Amino acid sequence: MPGSLNHHVSRVRTLYKKILQLHRALPLELKTLGDQYVKDEFRRHRSVGPEEAQCFLREWENYAATLLQQTNPKAQNSTSHPRFGSHLPEEKLHALRDEQVGQLQELMQEATKPKRHSYIIESMTAQFLT
Questions:
Q1: Could you give phi then psi for residue 81, rounded to 5 degrees?
Q2: Number of H helices, E strands in the chain
Q3: Is this entry keyworded Oxidoreductase (predicted)?
Q4: What domain count does the chain have?
């Protein structure tokens, strides 16, 4: 295996493990939904080209950095429900492929099923896009 490919595989595995570890700090329903989404997305992107792989990793690294900050107890306001995620800028929404828009819709439907907490809608929709 060439060195750069070896480095890439290591980077992907490290990021994947880090995200699953960060999910441990989430409420159980968010953790479950997030873990499954991450597993599916990483599986879907196993054989993408170098340019798409770099974009994929960059977005998931941004997600991990945001989640690390948001799961820090000092960053949460103790008087309200913890809030996870961030706003999806309109330019990113317009840049999504049809398949990604469909995935976002599926994620929103899953996150808004009955018995889900209302903050799941805000927390999950923007963050689990790639």
A1: -65, 145
A2: 6, 0
A3: no
A4: 1
CA angle 71–73–75, rounded 5-degree value: 80
Mean pLDDT by 10 residues, the chain (130 residues): 77 96 92 94 91 93 94 68 79 87 84 60 50
Question: For residue 106, is it within any domain?
Answer: yes
Structure tokens at 45: 């992107």
Nearest-angstrom CA–CA distance, 70 and 78: 13
How far apart CA 33 and CA 29 sit, in angstroms, is 6
The amino acid occupying position 11 is R
Asked if the structure places residue 130 within a domain, the reply is: no
pLDDT at 130: 44
Residue 78 CA to residue 44 CA, distance in Å, equals 37
| Domain annotation covers residue 103 | yes
81 in any annotated domain: yes
Give the separation between CA 26 and CA 33, rounded to whole angstroms: 10
> Which residue range is the domain that position 40 belongs to?
3-125
